Amino acid sequence: MASPPVGTPDPHAPSAALAEAASLLENRPEAALAQAEAILKRAPGLPPAEFLACQALRKLGKPAAALPRLTALVRSQPRVPAILWELAQAASEAGQTRDAIAALENLTKNQPAVANGWFLLAKELRKAGRAEDAWRADLSGVHASSRDPELLKAAVAMNEDRLDDSAPLLEARLHRLPNDPAGCRLLGEVNWRRGDMTEAMTWVERALELAPGFDLARDFLVRLLLQNNRLTEALEHAETLGMSPVKSPGHDLIKASVLVRLGHQEEAEQLYQHLLAQNPDQPQVWQNLGHVLKTLGKQAEAVHAYRQAVTYKPSMGEAWWSLANLKTVKLGPDDMATMKQALSDLELETETRQEDIFHLHFSLGKALEDAKDYPASFHHYDQGNRLRRTMILHDADDFSAEAADAARTFSAAFIARMGMGGCPTPDPIFIVGLPRSGSTLVEQILASHSQVEGTMELPEMMMIAGRLQSRLDEGEFADFQTLIASLTPADRLRLGEEYIERTRVHRRTDKPLFIDKMPNNWQHVGLIRLILPNAKIIDARRHPLSCCFSGWKQHFARGQTFSYDLADIGRYYRDYVDLMTAYDAAAPGAVHRVVYEDMVTDTERQVRSLLDYVGVSFEQACLEFYKNDRAVRTASSEQVRQPIFTDGIEQWKNYARWLGPLVKALGPSLSSNTLESAID
């Protein structure tokens, strides 16, 4: 007569003794083994006792002794998942990979919803050199996990923004099941939504350690690495993702995003072209391709790509804005009619399509400005800015306070007390100021010099400064000056070297100098001089009304949260001028100022002065900067491919009647003559 399966009561079995032996298994496996063997003497071959003995042997570090007994059990009990699972674990621990794979293939065939079986199978397949099969096993494990009730409950809580409900569920689960890849990834996302990037990265990386074929976890990790500007690592993971046996266009898209951030525009273009050759009906891919082509200076091709995007999706606001933002393209009546119809169609989707709506308003503002219908143009710019302002956080009072703290801190006396220190390399050239101040023009002029490499707007200095600011925010220091004063020469050297090392990935040539054109670095000129004392700092400045109005009617892809309200941007400009004035007084000559209007009207003289400050000889190519075909990613990418022109200097005057809030906010940053002309 056949023995009952494991776990099935047997009226002839010593059930009490079995229960007692099982209770000893976790903490006293040697006692559990002794009791199981005693039961087997009284009831030879009893499956539950035999199974318990094998479990105890494995826990005692004797998996090889358990293997033949488990193999015999499987022959008599071929459909009992617990026995197959135990056999697989014993074989794995005994180094019997082939036996482990056989057991796990049997288990997953009969119990495909058991995620752990798939994940252990993947591990054993990797040991056997069957990488692709292992990857597929991991993916099957992820699929099985997607139906786990406990994980589903945690995911629902997370998606409903009940993070304090979701996190404890996952933490308790991972305490019980520490090797659960799906639980690790989900807890990583919960931490990311909480704003804890360090914990998020730790858990997602753990998920990939456990299941290297977990594509969704790797995709998420790439995005986290991008957010942390760890671009080289992001590319490595994106390339790994591209080798997945389950092909997805999303893998190419995420890799292209990394390539763009690294400045590898040509490679990103190839990926987008490949995706569109397979399926042209992809407006998002057309738009992304347009961005790359614009950066590469292929304007006609960029226009075609953006046109394709809005053909496939007429309400795609960002594609319309990308067309309008080329500056050298004018959108005609048919375009305006299409955009207005799109806005009308989106009225019922205001909550879900806000980005399309504000992009369409900005686009119509530009089209109507080109048509010289300034009242209608201002209306759409205003609508776009008002909507965008509701979607971002910017506290003008807090920002002004931080700028004032920096201005007070970096006095001449403080700079003298801090003394020498920092990384002495002269490589970086920082171009600072406000967006739309002519900084891209200055960059293009310098990048046309044989000794200077243009990169892009690099976030590294902002990240270093942000990390220091977080120490102040967390109460480690009483105030900003105390924080900065705490930086020892060794600290300053380390931070300067960190900046140089982290920006190295953006340097593609052996030119000795490189440009960092992050405009917001004006907030950190004092810190720059402390940690990189030989770096050059260039302040690109433009007429306040011209600069602020141009920034207000420009939608930026990211950052610049101050720019969506006329009063906010005016106040930001005033904070900028005040801090730079204070620093000029504290460290005369440390910062070189380039006034956009002077560069336009007296180009050669300004260029020579700029090159003298940087410490390089004059080269004619710097006057012919528009011939430079380097990639340019900013809003002025097309303008700097042409000789200098004066058309944009006084565009703000067409809108002067509506600029009262800006004029008031700028206050003393405007001269009396400028103020009168603005009001008139």
How would you concisely characterize the structure shown here?
Helices cover 63% and strands 4% of the residues.
Please tell me about this protein's structure.
- By secondary structure, the chain is mainly α.
- The protein has 4 domains: 131 residues, Tetratricopeptide repeat domain (Serine Threonine Protein Phosphatase 5, Tetratricopeptide repeat); 181 residues, Alpha Horseshoe (Serine Threonine Protein Phosphatase 5, Tetratricopeptide repeat), CATH 1.25.40.10; 62 residues, no CATH class; 278 residues, P-loop containing nucleotide triphosphate hydrolases (Rossmann fold).
- Helices cover 63% and strands 4% of the residues.
- The protein is built from 35 helices and 5 strands.
- Strands 2-3-1-4-5 form a 5-stranded parallel sheet, with helices on both faces.
- Helix 31 runs parallel beside helix 34.
- The chain starts with 14 loop residues before the first helix and ends with a helix.
- The N terminus and C terminus are likely disordered.
- This is Sulfotransferase.
- Keywords: TPR repeat, Transferase.
Keywords:
680 residues, Sulfotransferase, 5 strands, mainly alpha, Serine Threonine Protein Phosphatase 5, Tetratricopeptide repeat, 5-stranded parallel sheet, single chain
CATH class of the largest domain: Alpha Beta
Q: CATH superfamily of the largest domain, please?
A: P-loop containing nucleotide triphosphate hydrolases
Any idea of the CATH topology of the largest domain?
A: Rossmann fold
> Any low-confidence stretches, pLDDT <50, length ≥5?
1-9, 672-680
Radius of gyration: 32 Å
Strand content: under 5%
Quick check: average pLDDT? 91
Organism: Novosphingobium indicum
InterPro entries: P-loop_NTPase (IPR027417), TPR-like_helical_dom_sf (IPR011990), TPR_rpt (IPR019734), TPST-like (IPR026634)
Pfam family, one: Sulfotransfer_3
Protein name: Sulfotransferase
